[in-house]
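If you are new to this repository, start here. Below is one unmodified record pulled from the training split, so you can see the exact layout before writing a loader.
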Amino acid sequence: MITTPAGHRGILIGTVHVGVQGLRQPSAAIFDGAKRHIVEQVPSEGPMPEPRPVWPPALAKLTKTQRLGEAPWAAQVSPQERAELRRRIACRTGYLDNQVDWELATSLAMESPLSAAETAIRPCAPPGIPSRDELLSRYARDRNVPTYSLEVNAEVEKRRRSVEDRIHLHQLHVGLSERQPEAMATITRTLNTGDFDEVTSVLSSLAANQEDAAIYERKMLADRNEAWVPRLLKYLEDGDAVISVGVAHLSGPNGLPALLRRAGMRVEPVVLPQALP
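And here is the target side for that same chain:
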């Protein structure tokens, strides 16, 4: 719970962007009296980023052979990893086989491994289990609570592309390894217990080294949190906001709770009403 000096209140809740087994979900009652739902991005909200570039020789091969070539980094993706990437594309998109094959080929032809890494770090959800993002958005829609964003797509895309390719490639390997389910189980536990600082340790342990962990934390978490705070303060001062962001944004000295406290907000842990199983 966040309380402004004027006494206005808002709820800040951590999410994980895929459906996971064992995550305790809040009930729709958290939107009782809410005026707005605040999320990281609204997909349709612009300006939209420029398309991610394909490696030019890969396109040249398509012109000559009707088969898309691969970027140099794709040589480091094993057959087992390709098979799992394909499976995740299929479960995420629901595409037919030929469309899934084209999507996989396109991701391996990109100049950067960013797109493939994004697929790798999001496992397929168990059947019938929505992500917390989906659940909260449904609650807001059902109660006619409008949704606003903390950043537009072009902003976060610029940050994603500023992360070095070696970090994206490492995330791809880790996301497709046995380390991912272990990390997801830990993150689920932190969401269930509220011990968000453990997330920082998990993310750091998954990085190739501490330097890369620090780069990613600064570019994709700390800098974004800093940019969000002025917008968050406005929404909080208006009162009755439900704010949902990825759980990694809530941990450590650069997390949103710490930044909001420094901005004069009172931040207190609360137990939210739980949805029925």
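Two things worth knowing about this chain: The chain has two domains: 2-12+21-50+120-144+158-267, 56-111. Residues 242 and 251 are 18 Å apart (CA to CA).
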